[in-house]
Amino acid sequence: MYLCYIDESGGFEAPGSGPGATPLMLFAGLIISADAVSPLTADLLALKRKFYPGKAAKHLDYLRMEIKGADLRSAIRSTSRRKQRHAFGVLDGVVTLLERHDVRLVGRVWIKEATTALDPGASYAFAIQDIARHFNSFLVVNDSQGMLLCDSRLHHQDAQVAHSLFTQKYKRSGDELPRLVEPTVFGQSENHAGLQIADLVASAMLFPMASRVYCAGYVTGNDMKRRLDVVRTRYATRLKPRQYLYRDTAGKMRGGIVVSDKLGQKPSRALFEPPPK
Is residue 58 part of a domain? Predict the structure, then answer.
């Protein structure tokens, strides 16, 4: 049995439409063996206790003390070496957890056109369906079953996404996701280590990497600061082999982190290439 924890980073609004507008929208899925969930959770608690001592009254309460990827990204952008060292210490530990527990990555990134917003409902549903298809392939290869666990949003948004997967499983022409035991379920991130790690991977690593690779020269703002290149320098070679990649029946490579670049038409593989010196 495997679980795929999914979280997103970014927004659907048009770039430049407001102070909080983002140049991209990103979804990351972390595929974890059910046997690894407990030790992974224990390791995350230990990591939090190491870097945030005294922030929770009891050891198990550290699960509810979330480390937000956006906060670590902000610390990396800052001019404070102390904040940068702390953020990288946490992220170094997170990548080590991915490697130790053989966590695999799939996902979808949309690089937005300069003045164009994304359709929230259609984009979210397509991304989750896409991740579900790659996850189903992983389950077939590993002769296993699995469940998707998405970070909870508003009820009507979650219901729309769940129904979009339901229609894939129960269509008259046949089940397109036969290895998934349920279309999807939703959880509160403060109660699931897998969702918290998905947020850290999405917001603190993949988001700044994608911003610098695909949006530099087209977009300005905090997420375009050159110092964020260190994220790619530090983690690209370790995250790249974490991807779950496979060939479909036509021999085309699928899975991994798929990037749709509306600006420069750069390929997905550019995400994990080292930055120019």
Answer: yes
